[in-house]
Amino acid sequence: MRHFVRSDDDAQLAVRRAESERQKLQRRDETFRPSRLDHGAWNILLFAFVTQGSRFSVGDACAHSGLPRTTALRRISELEAAGLMSRQPNDLDRRVDWLALTPMALDLLVTYFKAD
């Protein structure tokens, strides 16, 4: 099997960016251990982090996860079980629950992004 290696500037830049991304993923895994965050769970956490202070529903989180709704609901349950998200009922509409980051999740996200 032959391996083709491009040596032009675009290829080298792409390799450096890929290595940087790999390192970020490794740092994310280390920061949030023992929780193993897949892409959808990470999107939910990021959505919660950037909307911090604003109410958002389980439905909003599902929509921003990039996952099918049933999978997103599973990821939200996993984030709750890991102590990273909390769920509160909506007093005005029992069909809707509100989600929020836990203080632990907020601390971990701040630590993660400070190192970037």
What does this structure look like?
With 116 residues, the chain is mainly alpha-helical. It has a domain at 37-114: Winged helix-like DNA-binding domain superfamily/Winged helix DNA-binding domain (Arc Repressor Mutant, subunit A). Helix content is 59%, strand content 10%. The protein is built from 5 helices and 3 strands; from the N terminus they run H-H-E-H-H-E-E-H. It has helices at 9-31, 39-50, 58-65, 69-81, 103-114, and strands at 56-57, 85-89, 97-101. It has a 3-stranded antiparallel sheet. Strand 2 (85-89) and strand 3 (97-101) form a beta hairpin.
Helicity, as a percent range: 55-70%
Distance, first to last CA: 37 Å
Q: Segments where pLDDT lies below 50 for 5+ residues?
A: none
The dominant shape is elongated
Beta-strand segment tally: 3
Order of helices and strands: HHEHHEEH
- CATH homolog superfamily of one domain: Winged helix-like DNA-binding domain superfamily/Winged helix DNA-binding domain
* Overall radius of gyration: 18 Å
Strand-pairing-aware structural class: mainly alpha
Mean pLDDT across all residues, rounded? 85
Q: Helical stretch count?
A: 5
Main sheet summary: 3 strands, antiparallel
